[in-house]
Amino acid sequence: SGLTPDATTTAVCGYCSTGCGLRIHLREDEAIGLTPETNYPVNLGMACPKGWEALRVLDSDDRATHPLIKNPNGGFSKATWDDALRLFTDRFKSIQAEHGKQSVAFLSTGQIPSEEMAFLGALAKFGMGMVHGDGNTRQCMATAVTAYKESFGFDAPPYTYDDFEQSDCMVFVGANPCIGHPILWERVLRNKNNPEIIVLDPRRTETAMAASQHLQLSPKSDLALLYAITGEIIRRGYVDDSFVQASTTGFEQLCEHVAKFDTESVAKISGVSEEQIIKAAEAIGTGNAVSLWWTMGVNQSYEGTRTAQAIINIALITGNIGRPGTGANSITGQCNAMGSRLWSNTTNLIGHHRFEDADDRAKVACELDIDIESIPTETGWSYDRIMEGIQNDEIKGLWVIATNPAHSWIHQSNAREILDKLDFLVVQDMYSSTETARHADLVLPAAAWGEKEGTFINSERRYSLLKKVAKAPGEALSDFNIFRAVAHYWGVAEMFSQWTDPEAAFRIMQRLSEDKPSDITGIDGYEHLDDCGGIQWPWTSADAKQWAKPYQQRRLFSDSVFHHDDGKAKLIIDDITPMPEPTCDDYPTMLLTGRGAVSQWHTQTRTSKSPVLRKLYPNEPYIEIHPDDARSIGVQNGEQVRVTSRRGSLIANAMVVPTVKPKQAFMPMHYEATNQLTLSHFDPHSRQPSYKNSAVRIEAV
Ligand code: SF4
User: Fold this and answer.
1) Where would I find the 4Fe-4S Mo/W bis-MGD-type domain in this sequence (predicted)?
2) Which is deepest, 8, 222, 488, 599, by most CB within 10 Å?
3) Which residue puts its alpha carbon closest to atom 3 of ligand 1?
């Protein structure tokens, strides 16, 4: 800015789950610039372009600055907060009176602080009587959550980022950290053990190019391939027998099951040679500290949960858990995906309790000082079921907070028709221009990262502080204050009188966490978090007494005790599921989707506002296709192609590259058009959409 700062403070970045510390330079308490924090245990002085540009995107013409009410012409009129919240309350209450309490639902996010998520979840379900609510974390982390819960007995990613530097063998499955988590990849590059790096991915991604072994498998042959690798590990005698005996159940069934996946047959299915399968099994079997990492290539699949558990099984049978450089490690996506998992009051009763458990409901009622009858006795619907409920007229009102389903939900034209069916749609967002806001009846203007306080929880379970370093524009309010105002207008302010500010909410969360594996009762408030560069859960009051300062790096299961009643982890297996939409003569190409560039984030709601970031990726949608396919349809690099699936059709620029295999193509998810093509299909256990396997036809224009 050219100004000289008069102070600095540190805050956690608000994009991805890495959770980098950023040093914010202030002048008269307002941010005028930032640099990566050098003393922060996560990023050690590094940041990716999104982090560097975090302040720039706050200042944009399409920030939501006033409440907006849809007028009869289909446009929006500015409104006062009083008018907006009266409308919000009148419309939602009248829908509930006519159609029942369950007819109004909410969709939240992994992008707001934990305190706001907890407040929203408590307000919506306990205060407003909503039964159904879910978050956009269903699109990214639901599979990992389900897999961990079933295998470990708790949703517990076991690792710490130091493990990237301490492994001697790393396996990345459906993960491209070079692009998706660039600072974590920098941590890999700091590893001094000359690690073996094995990548399982149908594309030759940037990470695959840097790997020592790339298993370029056919799309969705990952589960069979992981079972074949497991079989080789067992046959070659690399099982840690004492660990398996003492700390797992289901080993015999696992052995029987993987015996069905002989290496020769799986080599044919997967397109990975027998030699490559054996070489990977050898590297894993002989490694001293093996870590296995996965992201959306696994999670966003119709058999994602079982695939994640096949990864977990490998870590368990080789005893690669609870020690430095090990683990079966899901890397989360959004800055606060973990906060959503613990605090959103959607898939779990707030604080990882169970709606169905009377004791848990009693504990939550007591800690929140609310009537136990206000707590639902069942878990609400998942995101896809909420969308189906709208389609079937079971849900008539929807409150969407900091997410953009009209762009990001699978099978987009269907999703938009569904949103238009609603009697009343409220969108609460920092921008009034999102694809979803265009469908809204009411837009509530929200403050952004940097304009409010709270905590994010990163992939390695670290609670870190974000801080108010800028003023929200116009009349925009923090989500926390919007929830306070909603409570007042709804007539339940008294019920939420404890929720005075984010730190008060954090104290409530601490009490709710007591005696859970994610206990944080030992954290002494926000200042303590700030002093320590964030604190990983668990951090109990007993920990606080024993240690002067929290461990900087803390991994789970070092005692080999898991969270099932018998203290053991479960080795979970399943049959292979047929691909829901295989290619055929009419749609001969398999479309893969994923992150495109380091500088893009999700639906580009924020990153498109930075002129710097926009220069770092193509502004028009593009599709990666193999040179053989380009030749056969007569298309040169950069020329337009039409891409058609059974659900929609779009124009994109051809990027002709050998990094995808023939009859496969890749489109980044960041472009609005991409989900016109995707298939509405879900993992049956996690209800996560299967974004990465849609059959398409590609033609010259
Ligand atoms: Fe922010 Fe993630 Fe980039 Fe770090 S890697 S600066 S947390 S977007």
Assistant:
1) 6-62
2) 222
3) 48
Residue 550 has pLDDT above 80, yes or no: no
Domain ranges in the chain? Answer: 7-54, 68-139+335-448+475-501, 158-330, 589-700
For residue 120, the CA-to-ligand 1 centroid distance in Å is 25
What is the distance between the alpha carbons of residues 480 and 113, in angstroms, rounded to a whole number? 9
Domain 589-700 has CATH 2.40.40.20: yes
Instruction: Report ipTM for this prediction.
Output: 0.99
Rounded to the nearest angstrom, the distance between the alpha carbon of 45 and the centre of ligand 1 is: 12
75: CB partners within 8 A, 6+ apart: none
The reported pLDDT for the residue numbered 399 is 98
Helix (H) or strand (E) holding 311: helix 304-317
Check if 606 has its Cβ closer than 6 Å to any atom of ligand 1.
Answer: no
Alpha carbon distance 550, 539 (integer Å): 8
CATH topology of domain 68-139+335-448+475-501: Rossmann fold (3.40.50)
Residue with tokens 């297996």: 573
Residue with the nearest Cα to atom 6 of ligand 1?
A: 51
Q: Is the C-beta atom of 613 inside 6 A of ligand 1?
A: no
Point out the least confidently predicted range of 162-176, 446-460, 606-620: 606-620
20, 456 Cβ separation under 8 angstroms:
no
Compute the distance between CA of residue 479 and CA of residue 483 in angstroms, rounded to an integer: 6
Q: Which atom of ligand 1 is nearest to the CA of 12?
A: 7
Helices (H) and strands (E) in the chain, counts: 26, 26
| Sheet-wide strand order for 7-12 | 7-12, 21-27, 30-36
The tens digit of pLDDT for each residue in 481-530 reads: 999 999 999 999 999 999 999 999 999 999 999 999 999 999 999 999 99
Domain 7-54 belongs to what architecture? Single Sheet (2.20)
Find the Cα–Cα–Cα–Cα dihedral 121, 123, 129, 131, rounded to 10°.
-10
Quote the CA–CA distance of 168 and 453 in Å, as a whole number: 39
What per-residue confidence (pLDDT) applies to 552? Answer: 66
Per-residue pLDDT band at 604 (split at 50, 70, 90): confident
DSSP per-residue letters across 647-685: S-EEEEEEEE-TTS-TTEEEEETTSTTGGGT----B-TT
**Residue written as token pair 């093996």:** 290
Domain 158-330 CATH assignment equals 1.10.287.110: no
With beta carbons less than 8 A apart as the criterion, state whether 493 and 54 touch.
no
Instruction: Confirm or reject: Cβ of 466 under 6 Å from ligand 1.
Output: no
Dihedral sign, CA of 456, 457, 460, 465? positive
Ligand 1 contact, 21 CB (< 6 A): no
Give pLDDT, residue 1: 60
pTM, entire model: 0.96
- The per-residue DSSP string of 584-646 comes to -SSS-EEEEEE---TT--TT-TTGGG-HHHHTTS-SS-EEEE-HHHHHHHT--TT-EEEEE-S
Read off the pLDDT of residues 616-670 as tens digits, 9 standing for 90 and up: 988 899 999 999 999 999 999 999 999 999 999 999 999 999 999 999 999 998 8
In 3D space, the residue among 664, 104, 646 whose CA is nearest the CA of residue 410 turns out to be: 646
Question: Which string of DSSP letters, residue by residue, matches 427-444?
Answer: EEESBS-STTGGG-SEEE
Whether residue 50 has its Cβ less than 6 Å from ligand 1: yes
Residue 620 CB-density burial (10 A; 0-12 exposed, 13-18 middle, 19+ buried):
exposed
Quote the distance between the C-alpha of residue 386 and its chain's center. 19
Band the pLDDT of 82: cuts 50, 70, 90: very high
